[in-house]
Amino acid sequence: MLTKIFPWPYRLLAVLALIAALAGAAYLQGRRHEQDSQLRGQVDSVLRVVRIERAQLAISNQVAAAHEQGRAADRIVYKAIEREVVRYVANPDHDVCELDRGWVQLHDTAALSRIPDPAGVADATSSGLTADDALGAVVDNYGACQDNARQLADLQGWVRAQQELSDTPLPVGLQ
Question: Which residue from 13, 32, 85, 167 has the fewest beta carbons nearer than 10 Å?
Fold first, then answer.
């Protein structure tokens, strides 16, 4: 009965319009699905970045705490050494000798990692500094050297831990 009411060109036009409407609806549905997938991917990426940053922060805090504990232990050791130096210096049984300027200059250039000036090294006049003063400076220098060595070792440990974090999946507790 509809075939008699609507002539065939209108029926063809209606069928084509229906096909176009279905195709448009399918396109819009696919586009919405793709946008949802991209959004989910972006959210997953942001969550992964947050998890990694939390893990990195945990590693940094752990290394910083260990570094401070080590520094505290080193300070205790070097304070004990300094007490021994003071006791040695205060002992009247040891000879006090003054260091010449050449020795002081060589020590200072060595501490600064410089090449000594050959003209200044030959100066053998008294510097006013004693071997006891030099002993205190050497103990201080070794303490600073130990602190630098600890800091470098802790930094290397931090870099290794960060590298391991980037090479492995996150632990279950941090996911």
Answer: 167
